[in-house]
Amino acid sequence: MSELRTLGGSPADRRTGKKAGKKFDSFVIHLRELGWISQPNTGGAQKMAATSSIPSSAIEEQAVRAALTRILASEQFRRSERISRFLEYVISHTLEGDSDSLKEVCIGISVFAREAAYDPQLDPIVRVEARRLRTKLDEYYAKSGSDDKIVVRIPKGGYKPVFVDRSCADEEVGEPLEVLPPLGGPLQEPLESQENAADVLLARLPNTRLWIAAALGLAILLAAAAPVLWRRFHALPSDSYLPIPIPITSYLGEEFEPALSPDGARFALVRNESIGVYNIFVQSLSGGNPVQLTDDHSGENLNPAWSPDGRDIAFLRMTPEQTSVIVEPAVGGPERQIAKLDSETVVWKSDAAELRGSLGPAWSPDGRYLAVSEDQGNSSSEGLTLIPLGFGTTRRLTGPPGGAVDVDPSFSPDGRSIAFARESSNSSADIFIASVSNGRLRQLTSDQHDIRGLCWGPDGHSIIFSSNRGGSGYALWSVPVSGEATMLLSSSGVQPIQPSTVAGSRLLLYADLSQNTNIWRINAAGAAKPVLLIGSSGRNNSARYSQDGSRIAFVSDRSGNWELWISERDGRNPTQLTHFEGPMLGSPRWSPDGTCIAFDARPNGHSAIFTVSSAGGAPHRLMQDSFEERMPSWSPDGKYILFNSNRSGSVRLWRVSVSGGDPVRLTDTVAYDSFETKDGKWIYFRSSAMEIWRVPASGGRAQKISAVQSVAGGRYFDLEGNSLYFAAGNNVPHTLDKLDLQSNKVQPIAVIPQGLVDGTPSLSVSPDGQSILFAEIDNSGSDIYGLRRR
Predict the structure, then answer these.
(1) Beta bridge partners of 779
(2) Is the pTM value of this prediction over 0.70?
(3) What is the tens place of the pLDDT at every residue in 281-308?
């Protein structure tokens, strides 16, 4: 059976017991890196060592550059252009002796294309990307670089790399640190066969005396650190997990939606090995290559779920025409379609980071039913349905109120209950449990925050879920089914989502997402390349020019939550306008006089229209009701606001006076993202089929604009003067087209080189028609990680 590497060192070292003291030192240093214990006073000798980057007698520059070449060519770095650029920059400048260029500001400008005056306190991209770089290096040395002679480290607290020659421990540079892969290292044997982390560490240190000495030293060290450890872990539930993530996959492309098999030996996942095509794969936890289960190019294959006996996998196949439930043997073979779903609310997004609630399927423990989410007889809500796999009839289990959607179904181990997330609005959800026998509901959480996947804990007494309820990004949480307080399970990773485990397992799988979206500006004539205008290490979208073109409103999560921001025309001086610290907000629109901005937000679980002064202040809610009201826009005179709402049962376009009064319905069809022409005659809007329509401003029959086949990204279009601008094309790169409303001719004007931020109104044309703002995905990735149960 393959050995699980944890503390480095060659096989010969482990047999002879050499370097045991250094292994213990490395373990202690790793504890410091994790923040569990404080850094000691290093003293003069170590300080002197840290001041010399590369003694010529220790490591030659050529060897370091060769090591860099191997790292950049590895599977861990090949698809991470920004991280690779970061690593190459800091190593090159260190080799050149240019320490001044390793300052945070210099890296931000040179590596991440920030403006010369950017403020690292407002835009922490270098610090965030440095964390990702350290993680990538850990993954590399745990896998591709496990036999490398030269090791590169970026110690915390700075960006100056240190280099270690593993064949000559006395000539280490910087921190005296051996290579330490993430605990668990590469998965080379089933985790169920590993007793616990302590047993693994003990097995790797055969010299008992050295181990006892190290253990005594560690005991003293941990005793001194006990207060810190208590503060870090006292809030964790009894079935908590070790805080060190285990890298499971790091393939090219994206991997997400892991599903652990009933016996805990395999897992299914979704992967886009081919560009733009998502298929189901099965991977053994004992190693080997993943086996591709589906090979369908007509749609996307998602949400794998194991049968109780582990023989079959159910999944969804989503095409533009329909969404189907498919079952196929886990080892491959003929597939069969179980059902077609009626679902309009949850739409497949081309990027993993944009995936929201899962429609299912979830397999019942007795193997008799599949639970899915689908339309419940009206277009504004979706509930859970039980589909029989043998004899029996389809049965509706939940019926959410209008506008709500029940997603992420998960059967309890005993099959008596189903846990699920009920989304009352976009990114506003809570966890419920439904009785399978009678559908009786019980609400477990009241957070009204985004939920990105859930599963039952291995003991069947808790629900593990991913949420941004903590206010600083996504983390894994656990809530007891008894209704006790929700507790933090793990905040490891960039965006840990879609948790998966099974009864009795000590392994919890999840997908870790990283995504960076920024706002770019391009000349409307298409004569120059796009220029980065507004960026951060997180996500930025929905930019909108003010009516005089002097300012820009946009949405960003740079504060830890989605909030509304404004900046100057050139992107400088970003200022936060809202402080909801809650679920998603968006769709900013400037008033004609530029004094305030209308937008939609969900502080109380339902989307509502707000206005806020562009000078700052408290937002004002326009209407006090419980309907879903979104996507505001202004009439040319500033007296009315257009918006869509489900107040009539289905999503229609409405108009309300800013001074108050009852809203007036303008369309009899589904309508999103409206624009009223400056002469007040027409209102252009997007249909549910991503088409552009128009309706008289006074109301009446809607007309389709046949020259626009489809709006890419869902919401990438804008109206300026007599022209309609929109993104077109189903694949990257997309084109920016201009439709002349008088001649009805379409003219391509520019290209968006990267992926669009689906579902956001991220296209804005300046009032003078000279510049166009758009948001794109500059970096996105996802891998599968695991956590070990304590």
Answers:
(1) 516
(2) no
(3) 999 998 888 899 998 766 789 999 999 9
